[in-house]
Amino acid sequence: RQATVYIGHVLPAADYIGCAPECASDHGAGESDAVVSSIALQKWVAEGYAGNATNSKTVLSIIENRVAELLAADQSSDAWDCLARLQALILHQTIRIFDDDASALVAAEVTMPALRTTLTHFVENVSLEDTLLCISGLPINRLIEDPSASSPDYWHNWIFEESARRTLFLSYLLIRIWEVSQHMNNQQNIQTAKSQRTVEKKQLTCDGRLGLSNSWWYWYLSAHLWEAPTRYDFALAYAEKNRFVIKDLDFSEFLALGQPEDVDLLGKMALSALMGNEALQEWCFERGGETLTGPASL
Fold first, then answer.
1. Do residues 153 and 147 make contact, with C-beta atoms less than 8 angstroms apart?
2. What highest taxon heads this organism's lineage (predicted)?
3. Coil, helix or strand for 245?
4. Residue 211 CB: number of other CB atoms within 10 A?
């Protein structure tokens, strides 16, 4: 079943971008076989790759086969399919980019245009509208109610929408990391053509927002919402907790009013990149909270 293979359920990356397993199962079967088979093995691949260096060649071979199958499949316009495909490519490209193996880096370079194309297709076919934000004065009891013909599933809808927003952020972040690494490599290569250096320089033009300056794009920095285990917990957090909206990568409101308990893993990754890990831990200490533990990045 899709619930057992969806990236949000089987991978640590779920804490950043994934969807709740029951949310995925509600969607039912629909992904192409290539997407499903790719995601189904990702937990094993990621754990095997990280835990045993002697397995790296085998794991990389599996990754290449899965990416080939994934890219050979037609792109669906279904929102769930688009999300699953993009998340799978993010994972595979992340493993490749941060590998020291030359063949992995070459494979990452070859696949980067496909990631960009998939990202464009994702933006064109997945609505990033915030359903709850567009509804003013929604009673809290409506969030607690089980979905019916007359009552939308506000909780699961929000989970999917937020997962899409986070996936968009990580896609652009990964692309910018790749561009920076390529630029640094080219700077060290005296054979790089001047015209190519000019292109790289143009790509590295930085607006401080990863290029995500559209008025509709943002994500929530709220562990209370993202990690809510039940419909009731989500409704309570939505009504009583601060809902910090990160737009244009502006964390100023959160840094002024937020607390360590508000920070989930994606928030930690973003704040660590913005402030540095030591400054982030000091920020937590000043607010009487425990230092944030866990991985700072994917």
1. yes
2. Eukaryota
3. strand
4. 12
Q: What is the largest CA-CA distance in the chain?
A: 66
Q: What is the pLDDT of residue 138?
A: 74
> Distance of CA 253 to CAs 201, 240, 245, 265, 266, Å?
32, 17, 9, 19, 17
Residue with tokens 């013909």: 149
128: left (phi over 0), alpha (psi -120 to 50) or beta: alpha
Instruction: Give the pTM.
Output: 0.78
Distance CA 55, CA 45 (A): 10
Query: pLDDT tens digits for 232-277?
Result: 999 999 989 999 999 888 899 999 999 999 999 999 988 998 889 8
For residue 298, what pLDDT is reported? 34
Quickly state the pLDDT bin for 191 (edges 50, 70, 90).
low
Three-state DSSP state, 291: coil
E-strand ranges in 36-149 read none
Measured CA to CA, the distance from residue 269 to residue 264 in angstroms comes to 9
DSSP SS3 for 39: helix
Tell me what the pLDDT averaged over the chain comes to: 76
Q: Which residue has the tokens 């559209």?
A: 214
Helix (H, G, I), strand (E, B) or coil at 284: helix
Which of 234, 233, 254 lies closest to 244, judged by CA? 254
Tokens of 295: 């991985």
* CB 224, CB 237: distance < 8 Å: yes
Q: How far apart are CA 38 and CA 41, in angstroms?
A: 6
* Residue type, position 56, single letter: S
**b or e along 65-93 (b: 16 or more beta carbons within 10 Å of the residue's beta carbon)?**
ebbeebbebebbebbbbbbbbbbbbbbbb
Question: How far is it, in rounded angstroms, from Cα 88 to Cα 119?
Answer: 12
